[in-house]
TrEMBL record:
InterPro entries: Beta-lactam/transpept-like (IPR012338), Glyco_trans_51 (IPR001264), Glycosyltr_51/Transpeptidase (IPR050396), Lysozyme-like_dom_sf (IPR023346), PBP_transglycosylase (IPR036950), PCN-bd_Tpept (IPR001460). Residues 670-732 are annotated as: Disordered. The keyword Protease applies. Residues 721-732 have a biased composition (Gly residues). It catalyses: [GlcNAc-(1->4)-Mur2Ac(oyl-L-Ala-gamma-D-Glu-L-Lys-D-Ala-D-Ala)](n)-di-trans,octa-cis-undecaprenyl diphosphate + beta-D-GlcNAc-(1->4)-Mur2Ac(oyl-L-Ala-gamma-D-Glu-L-Lys-D-Ala-D-Ala)-di-trans,octa-cis-undecaprenyl diphosphate = [GlcNAc-(1->4)-Mur2Ac(oyl-L-Ala-gamma-D-Glu-L-Lys-D-Ala-D-Ala)](n+1)-di-trans,octa-cis-undecaprenyl diphosphate + di-trans,octa-cis-undecaprenyl diphosphate + H(+); Preferential cleavage: (Ac)2-L-Lys-D-Ala-|-D-Ala. Also transpeptidation of peptidyl-alanyl moieties that are N-acyl substituents of D-alanine. Keywords: Carboxypeptidase, Cell shape, Cell wall biogenesis/degradation, Glycosyltransferase, Hydrolase, Multifunctional enzyme, Peptidoglycan synthesis, Protease, Transferase. Residues 355-662 form the Penicillin-binding protein transpeptidase domain. The lineage of its organism: Bacteria, Bacillati, Actinomycetota, Actinomycetes, Geodermatophilales. One of its GO terms (biological process) is regulation of cell shape. The keyword Glycosyltransferase applies. In the C-terminal section; belongs to the transpeptidase family. In the N-terminal section; belongs to the glycosyltransferase 51 family. This is Membrane peptidoglycan carboxypeptidase. It comes from Geodermatophilus normandii.
Length: 732
């Protein structure tokens, strides 16, 4: 050994001696200069123990579960799965103690003798052969490091040099003594095994066992345990996956140490030599999914749920990543899978057109599925980070006629009310806006709307809804005297108008946008499904929720500052609209899917009463179908989310097909209920709606397209102002 090397060795040894002496001083003296350490007695030790060390082991990964209990994904900053003492192999515990702190079961948290011995051994070898601090001290250091709230606290937890380094060592020693007086040895060891970093992104023994050997911590063998115990001091340098030779050398050091301490009973020197000669046999595992980008199913549902947790429930991302929470969600894996496939049957993954399927449970607000022909969060062209289900980007067309019908029924206008609009066009007497065909003189500046195709001149509300007549519903708005009733009804049923892409409800009302009933406003697909779910729930409106329960690390409901569970059963408003109005409309809308004049026949599923409505935005920029049963409500919207594009077809085509492709197999083994009967008074003194008939097999009854006037900007039409504009006429 050269003089320089010898000097370095002696210098390191001297440093260890100084630290050891300081630790002894910290144990013996009531106050260590300037550090504020209290006298070493039980009361003062326990009083000073910080909450980070009185809590249990860091909680580990938060798990997100589907409604059937299957794993959707995890959230974690550190890949850690906490395990109990009896879930860790005894040989693993022994290996760690032998190489890190062989006097663990004898000392009281500090081991000056062990520290000096380790110092001499390690300095002589030129590498770490034995741990210098006790396991208890290491637990203190790791806990304070992981629970640090700032860069300064993290630096304090790892400070090595000068007075600061000595102060840190003294504090660790002080807290180690307190821990030993508070907890039994086995708990301290278990907590340490759950917190320590083993490399390869694995924190804690369970994650490490899975990452390196694809086994559980309870099933680790002697060679595996020795390998993992050796990683604690240098997880990168001794990584058996990336540095197998270093890994084998380090493993053998642990095996030799265990043998020397008499903990390999029955093992002969020859057997030990043979064991050491074997290379490390790794079986690398896959890190558990982390975040919504890794979701096993329902990536967009996951993103919506994450936003709900952080923004609605106020759970911090830090708690989500480190709190060991269990999030029990409403996702129905079967419906989600069928929705995914149904969308892809119609539109390939990454197509310019997005097919957005959103399903909820009426009366609860539970979000059951969120499908789209996109992958969540990745960087490929077929990927998307915006949750299109909750973004209001396109109009929903004639699905809005239901809101006008509901407002009319509530106002006393009965379903048998007949309105005649000759010539498939109607000029409003209330709303100003674009003229039909651009003929300003003909309309005298009043809003004019047309149907596309041949319609009876005279229809009642039942026939107008089922056939989706544009002219009837603008005329019905006239009878209501404005749009306030339909707009407020839409809000009460579940639509929101608070996104930057939308007019607010007040703007629509103040502007008296006559095109409201034709679905001019940008609409979030989830809002649309939720509004129709109110019909299925006999007028009860619910706020969509993706979460049933959030449990803390101990399996108890997570509570807020008021001590009450964050997830509460208070997201529904009974009788948000009158039950008789909801039931009457639901019965009428069954004709949209089941009668031979309905526009949504492709969504019909024999044996199930489905109330439905199609919608087509102007220029076929967006098409929609929304269907509801007492148990399920779902919307399907098809549009280009990035630009205007004629999608081809109408709401009764792709959207209705996706709906049926999803629910036909899903409902094959599930009964659905009939809607409560319509109110005879609302129907017109008992006058019944036309009896639905099954459509002829293979027959196609297209829904009505949009009127042909251009779409003006923000309440103007054809360059001239009008308070009924918004956009021009829309079809269904």
């Amino acid at each position: 050994m050269s003089a320089v090397s010898r000097a370095r060795v002696l210098g390191k040894l001297a440093a260890f001696v100084v630290v050891a002496g300081a630790l002894v001083a910290g144990m013996l003296f009531p106050l260590v200069g300037g550090t504020g350490l209290a006298a070493r007695n039980s009361a003062s030790l326990l009083d000073a123990l910080p909450v980070e060390l009185t809590d249990a082991t860091p909680a580990g990964n938060s798990r997100v579960l589907a409604a059937d209990g299957s794993l959707i994904t995890n959230f974690y900053a550190h890949n850690r799965t906490v395990v109990a003492a009896d879930q860790i192999a005894d040989v693993m515990k022994q290996a760690l103690v032998d190489i890190e702190d062989s006097r663990f079961y004898e000392h009281n948290g500090l081991d000056v003798q062990g520290t000096l011995r380790a110092a001499v051994t390690n300095v002589a070898a030129g590498s770490v052969q034995e741990g210098g601090s006790t396991i208890t001290q290491q637990l203190v250091k790791q806990t304070l490091l992981e629970t640090a709230d700032s860069a300064e606290e993290r630096q304090e937890a790892i400070e090595q040099d000068g007075v600061e380094g000595l102060s840190r060592k003294l504090r660790e020693a002080r807290l180690a003594l307190a821990l030993e007086e508070t907890y039994p040895k086995d708990e301290i060891l278990t907590r340490y095994l759950n917190i320590v970093y083993f490399g390869q992104g694995a924190y804690g023994i369970q994650a490490a066992a899975q990452q390196y050997f694809s086994v559980n911590a309870a099933d680790l063998t002697l060679p595996q345990a020795a390998m993992l115990a050796g990683l604690v001091q240098s997880p990168t340098n001794d990584d058996p996956i990336t540095n197998p030779e270093n890994g084998q050398t380090r493993r053998n050091q642990v095996l030799q140490r265990m043998y020397d301490l008499g903990h390999l009973e029955g093992t002969t020197p020859e057997q030990l030599a043979a064991l050491m000669a074997e290379p490390v046999q790794v079986a690398p595992g896959v890190s558990p999914p982390n975040g919504c980008i890794d979701a096993a199913i329902g990536g967009f549902f996951c993103a919506f749920m994450q936003q709900y947790l952080t923004q609605t429930l106020g759970i911090s991302q830090e708690l989500l990543d480190n709190g060991g929470l269990t999030i029990q969600t409403t996702l129905d894996p079967q419906l989600q899978t069928l929705g995914d496939q149904a969308v892809l049957n119609t539109l390939p993954m990454g197509d310019q057109l997005a097919g957005v399927f959103t399903a909820l449970k009426p009366g609860t607000g539970d979000v059951l599925a969120m499908s789209v022909n996109r992958r969540f969060g990745c960087s490929d062209p077929e990927c998307e980070s915006v949750v299109l289900h909750t973004a209001a980007s396109k109009g929903a067309g004639s699905t809005y006629k239901t809101f006008t019908a509901a407002a009319a029924l509530e106002a006393g206008i009965r379903a048998n009310t007949v309105i005649t609009t000759p010539g498939d066009r109607y000029t409003s007497r209330v709303f100003r806006g674009p003229a039909c065909g651009g003929d300003r003189e003909q309309s005298d500046g009043m809003y004019c709307v047309e149907n596309v195709g041949d319609y009876p001149d005279t229809l009642d509300m039942v026939g107008a809804l089922v056939r989706s007549s544009n002219t009837y519903f603008v005329a019905l708005e006239d009878r209501l005297g404005g749009v306030e009733g339909p707009v407020r009804m839409a809000e009460r049923m579940g639509l929101t108008f608070d996104q930057p892409t939308q007019h607010s409800a007040e703007e629509i009302i103040d502007g008296n946008f006559g095109s409201f009933t034709l679905g001019a406003e940008a609409t979030a697909p989830m809002d649309l499904a939720n509004a129709y779910a109110t019909l299925g729930a006999q007028g009860t409106r619910c706020t969509p929720t993706p979460v049933v329960q959030v449990l803390d690390r101990n399996g108890q409901p997570l509570t807020g500052d008021d001590g009450q569970p964050l997830v509460r059963d208070d997201n529904c408003t009974p009788e948000s609209i009158p039950a008789n109005v909801a039931n009457t409309l639901a019965n009428i809308l069954v004709g949209d899917t089941a009668s031979n004049v309905g526009t949504g026949q492709r969504a019909n599923i024999p044996g199930h009463a489905i109330a439905g409505k199609t919608g087509t935005a102007q220029g076929r920029d967006s098409v929609a179908f929304v269907g509801v049963m007492p148990e399920y409500a779902a919307s399907v919207m098809v549009f280009n989310p990035k630009e205007q594009q004629d999608v081809g077809g109408y709401g009764g085509n792709m959207p209705a097909t996706i709906f049926a492709d999803t629910f036909a197999p899903y409902l094959a083994d599930k009964p659905t209920s009939a809607f409560p009967p319509a109110d005879p008074v609302l129907m017109g003194q008992g006058s019944p709606a036309p009896q639905p008939t099954q459509p002829t097999q293979g027959a196609e009854q297209p829904d009505q397209g949009p009127a042909d006037q251009p779409a003006p900007d923000q309440g103007t039409a054809n360059g001239w102002p009008g308070n009924g504009g918004g956009w021009g006429g829309f079809g269904n």
